[in-house]
Amino acid sequence: MKVKYTTMIVEDMVESVRFYKEVMGFEIDSQYNLGPAGSITLMKGEGDAMLELIQNPVDDIGLFSVGMDVENLESTIKELKAKGAKVTMEPTQISVGSLAFIEDPNGIRIALIQHK
User: Fold this and answer.
1) What's the burial of 47, exposed, middle or buried (CB within 10 Å: 0-12/13-18/19+)?
2) How far apart, in whole angstroms, are the C-alpha atoms of residue 77 and residue 6?
3) How far apart, in whole angstroms, are the C-alpha atoms of residue 32 and residue 25?
4) Are the C-beta atoms of residues 13 and 74 closer than 8 Å to each other?
5) Hey, CA dihedral for 80, 86, 97, 52, is it positive or negative?
6) pLDDT digit string (tens) for 46-103?
7) What does pTM read for this prediction?
8) CA pair distance 54, 63, nearest whole angstrom
9) Continuous segment of H or E residues that includes residue 18
10) Max CA pair span of the chain
């Protein structure tokens, strides 16, 4: 597995993007306006992993999840279940492939993604 992104729910997208650009040295990779559902900004620093900032009216502010790329989501979920992982969302088809969530012992969401 490879860490692909970290997702944070932010209160103010403009201020958050400014901070990660001007203070932390990240660059905007892409932005998505979801209308009343909120907005997403993907930011890139050094290396391959991305920072995903989401502003929406639903989720609590803070760390939302850590996203990891997997080669085969079905077999990865099966293996993780056998090792005692708590699966909070079974594999689901999404626009870029398949997604499932597990939870670490601290309640942190780990998104497992198999891209098309």
Assistant:
1) exposed
2) 20
3) 21
4) no
5) negative
6) 988 999 999 999 999 999 999 999 999 999 999 999 999 999 999 999 988 999 999 9
7) 0.84
8) 10
9) helix 13-18
10) 44
